[in-house]
Specification:
single chain; alpha+beta; 66 residues; 48% helix
Length: 66
């Protein structure tokens, strides 16, 4: 599963792939301005997002014995 994040604004949601590049995968109602702001925030926090992703799935796999 590729690294991705969800961005939610009220009832609208978008999903972005983070690696190998930031790419909008799905948009369910976010406005163009909201998408631009989300992309900026993801770019500025890319290393943190990746680190948390790896930490989450490492811990999850350890719990399930994978």
């Amino acid at each position: 599963m590729p690294v991705h994040v969800y961005v939610t604004v009220e009832k609208a949601e978008a999903r972005y792939q983070v690696l190998p590049e930031i790419k909008l995968i799905e948009n369910r109602g976010l406005k163009p301005r909201e998408l631009r702001l989300a992309e900026i925030a993801i770019e500025e926090n890319k290393e943190i997002i990746i680190a948390r992703w790896e930490e989450y799935f490492k811990n999850r796999n350890n719990e399930t014995g994978l």
